[in-house]
Amino acid sequence: MQVISTIAELHERLTDEREIAFVPTMGNLHEGHLQLMRGARKHGSCVVASIFVNPLQFGPNEDFEQYPRTLNDDCAKLEGLADVVFAPSVKEMYPVNQTVYIELPQIASELCGAARPGHFRGMATVVLKLFNIVQPDVALFGRKDYQQLFLVRLMVEQLNLPIAIVGCETVRAEDGLALSSRNQYLSDSERAMAPFLYQTLKSIKQHMQNGDRDIEKLERKAIESLAGRGWQVDYVVIRNQSDLMKSDSEHLVILVAAKLGKTRLLDNIEFDLL
User: Fold this and answer.
1) Which of 8, 68, 100, 108 could form a disulfide with 28 if both were Cys (CB 3.0 to 4.6 A apart)?
2) Is pLDDT of 207 > 90?
3) pTM surpassing 0.90?
4) What pLDDT was estimated at residue 61?
C-alpha cells in the first residue's frame, strides 16, 4: 500500500490503472469505512482511499479544528484493503482560494443543509475535485449520510461524469447505533441513550407499515419523543427515496438528525409500504 500526499505523484501512480474503485473519507476510520473498502475491492482492481478533512464543508462554529486526525492509525487499518491512500494537505487541495463551487438544487439547503448552511456546497465541490484527481470508475459512499449520497448521485448524473456511484449499507453497533466518527464525542451516559435514535426510526416504519399514514403526526410525535429524552432535534422527516421530496410514494426513507449533548448524529431507514 502506498500513501501519497501530492496530486502529481498520485497521477503518476494511477497512470496505468484501468479499474479504479474509490472511497473518499475524512479519516478517523471505523468499521463502517472498512466495509466500504471491502466493497470497493469487488468493484475495481485498484482500490484508492482518500483521507482529507475538507474545510469547505465545515461552518464557522463547527468542529473543523477539533475533528480527529488519525492518519497513522487510519493507514494501519487500511493495510490489505487499499492499494493507494491519498492524504493531501489543505494547501495541496486548495493551492489558491477556492472561488468556484458546485451549485446544488434547493434540496441541498433543506434537512442537513438547513442546519449546516454551505455544507453540501463544500462537500460537492471537494468530491468533484477528488473525482477529477483520482479518475475512478466506481466510487463508494455510505447510506448513513443519505442526503449526501443523493446529492453526489445527482451531481454525477447531471454533469455526465463516467463514474458508477455505489451506496453501501449503514454499519451499526450491536445496539443499533449507526457507526460514525463523531460517536467518540459521546459521554458514557449519552452513548447509552444514543440507540434510541434508530429505535425511533424503526417505530415510525412499523406504524406506517401497520397502516398509519398520517406523516405529519408521526414526524411530530417522533420529535416530541426525542426532545422529551433530552435530544435537540433538527428534523425527523419521511420522504420519497428517489428525490427526497414529500410524496405519497410507496418507496420511502425516514431521515433524522439530532444532537445528544454536543454531538450531532444522523440516521435513516428505507422501507416500502406493504
Assistant:
1) 68
2) yes
3) yes
4) 80
